[in-house]
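Hi all, long-time lurker, first post. I run a small reading group and we've been trying to get comfortable going from sequence to structure in the token notation. Rather than ask abstract questions, I figured I'd post a concrete chain and ask someone more experienced to write out its structure so we can walk through it together at our next meeting. Sequence below, copied exactly:
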Amino acid sequence: MPATSRRRKKPARRAPRALAGTVYITRQVHFNSAHRLHNPAKSQRWNTEKYGLCTNPHWHGHNYVLEVTLCGRPDPETGYVMDLGELKRILHRAVVDPCDHRNLNEEVPFLRGINPSTENLVIAFWNEIAPLITAGRLHRVRLFETPRNYAEYIGPDSPAS
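-- Answer (accepted) --
Happy to help. Here is the structure in token form:
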């Protein structure tokens, strides 16, 4: 009796299931910058009382850590809210490249005329990052000035704004 070959049918290729739900993704980047907290409309005494060593006319620096969070639903084809590699490229273009190893008061065009407190920086960074986001929604910009001090901004539409 001749042997019969049995071929198994390959199952039809199907896209993986997409799960419904809102997800928050965060990318962290680092940069180093100098700055001075100073209000030129006030006296040096006032600035020293308000800012202490941070108003040193010879500047001081920080090793900043920037965290940016997006929210959205994962794309059914990729499973991503946004490719984190693309988010990294956006953060470098918008913030790291212009600010790294720079004097924030004098060398960063989008910060000209702004007192570069951590609070002001998170708002300025949001304004630079938001137009570049192509997937998901910008949810939060958090900036660590030191491991124990940070500010975060949830955007202009947050209840606190």
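A couple of things your group might point at:
The radius of gyration is 24 Å.
The mean pLDDT is 93.
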